Amino acid sequence: MEKITSREILHQIREEAAKKISDSRCRILICAGTGCLAGGSGEIYRRMSELAEENPDIDVEFGPEIAHGSGPLEVKKSGCHGFCEMGPLMRIEPAGILYTKVKPEDCDEIFHRTIEKGDVIRHLLFKQDGIEYKKQEEIPFYKKQTRNVLKNCGHIDAEHIEEYISTGGYEALEKVLFEMTPQEVVEEISASNLRGRGGGGFPTGYKWSQVARQEEKTRYVVCNGDEGDPGAFMDRSIMEGDPHKMIEGMMIGAYAVGAREGYIYVRAEYPLAISRLKRAISQAEESGLLGDHILGTDFSFRLHINRGAGAFVCGEGSALTASIEGKRGMPRVKPPRTVEKGLWEKPTVLNNVETYANVPKIILQGADWFRTIGTEGSPGTKTFSLTGAIENTGLIEVPMGTSLRHIIYDIGGGLKSGAAFKGVQIGGPSGGCLIEDQIDRPLDFDSVKSLDAIMGSGGLVVMDENTCMVEVARFFMNFTQRESCGKCVPCREGTKRMLEILERIVEGKGEMSDLDELEELATMVQSMALCGLGKSAPLPVISTLKRFRDEYEEHIRDKKCRAKVCTALRQFHINPEFCIGCGKCAKNCPAAAISGKIKHPYHIDNELCIKCGTCKDNCNFDAVYVEA
């Protein structure tokens, strides 16, 4: 690709790239996000590429109503399409067909039936409530979203800069370099009221203005890609599927605050994201969009990638910058804050991936446009990872203020197997639990905070009636206790004491006084911990205690887990009406807790039983049942 040294050359390359795509006879976009690659999409890409090479002159037929070009047949790797439950996914353009749960053995049929003859393979289409959906945009999962940040994910080749440029990529950068002053950029972002999507919801424009006004002229722009929440994969999908959008946002931020260098901090567990980012940075440097005198202007900017070692605490700003500097990732006392003394004691802008990915479109379409989406206090859209007991797991994007009901039932397709809804853990281990009574409340920064939870980076774990809320609290407290950096006593010791109490309760050894102690410890940690992660660590306990106190009391008073999840509180019994006396359960019991004789019902001694469930697993007659 020609070196881009002016806005005129950028326009020319954009037109050429867009024309190349529109001239294609057919584009086969195979999801190459982490989830689909784990499901075999790499092999699907290889086979489809082979078929395209073997049949270079094949006639493409999608019917007279669909126009296609006379150019090449292209097989492309896209980023995550978002519909993870249905992966691996394949999108076929210009027909807009989306095939789901594709297997390598389906490739030949797809090529010769769909590409060559225009036939739709029905068993590969998504089906819901008896309806088949041929086109991606018609599927309720997609149709009921508002995809701004994720717009390109699944629709462009994530590994080639020309594809991003063809969609209008780097047009916002061009606009700020030639038509706006740095102060005007800061004012536009401030007017949009874009709030940080990493969890805190701090106004982005205000943060930028604080860095821009510092007397120190050496400044840095840092992107937090250390997405540590269990079940969260929003930032990862953006880095994998549309890395240049985030990079462009960082460059605009650098121009606004006068920074010449930037750092992207990515967790080492994201090898594909790191690979795509490295490729994107390399291509941007080769094309002249990163480096010195970008687009022939005085603006120069360089980007570096740092890999984190997987410490959850490095998602906190001061710990993250310390890690980049080669120090142990531990939060420090504030003030001074990162905007005053961040990376190498210099003023630093620190935002997460999704925040930067919002910036280009705000610059192009204006703050007023952005504020028409979402709520007054939380404008724009928010990406969420939707996991747990939900039919359609995946990555979604909806306007701020959207209700949980819309997300769970209209987009997510409801709960699996028709189970009753119980709650949603929002914000990961630093978040809280929302219940049925709150399912119609708007999801935005302020509303969620008023419900004893935080938005976090956007993880939503849906839980049904088979979930034990005491165990949920124990699971997240175990995570935050292990991930505590140990610098401050309230977090280091407080979370440890809380975990010990929760473990006693799920083991059936709790006392009613433990609940008061849990609340006291939670209040202490929340008010006295050094960093935001420590302060939010007790939220899962606080919210579950408030909304599911009866479950805690059942565990303590009745030694009962209604969800039959807590192993120590389960009791295994044999129904004599179903037991034929085969003895298989007794033969496989590792504790010798089952007695009886052949052809007569057996019996389980719960004093000896270790609650392993082997008897139930080995019974072919459903005679073994669990009583909580």
Account of the protein in words:
It is a single chain. By secondary structure, the protein is α/β, with parallel strands linked by helices. Helix content is 39%, strand content 15%. The strands form six sheets. Strands 12-11-15-13-14 form a five-stranded mixed beta sheet, sandwiched between helices. A four-stranded mixed beta sheet has the order 2-1-3-4, covered by helices on one side. β17 and β18 (603-604) form a beta hairpin. The longest helix is centred in the last third of the chain and has 18 residues, at 489-506.
Which labels suit this protein?
628 residues
Topology:
Layout: H1 7-23, E1 26-31, H2 34-38, H3 41-54, E2 73-78, E3 90-93, E4 97-99, H4 107-117, E5 126-128, E6 131-133, H5 140-143, H6 161-166, H7 171-179, H8 182-192, H9 204-212, E7 220-225, H10 234-241, H11 243-257, E8 261-267, H12 271-287, E9 302-308, H13 317-324, E10 348-352, H14 353-365, H15 367-371, E11 381-388, E12 394-399, H16 404-411, E13 421-426, E14 432-435, H17 445-449, E15 459-464, H18 469-483, H19 489-506, H20 513-528, H21 532-536, H22 539-547, H23 549-558, E16 571-574, H24 584-588, E17 594-595, E18 603-604, H25 614-618, E19 624-627
Parallel strand pairs: 1-2, 7-8, 7-10, 8-9, 11-15
Antiparallel strand pairs: 1-3, 3-4, 5-6, 11-12, 13-14, 13-15, 16-19, 17-18
Helix pairs in contact: 7-11, 7-14, 8-9, 8-11, 10-11, 10-12, 11-14, 18-19, 18-22, 19-20, 20-22
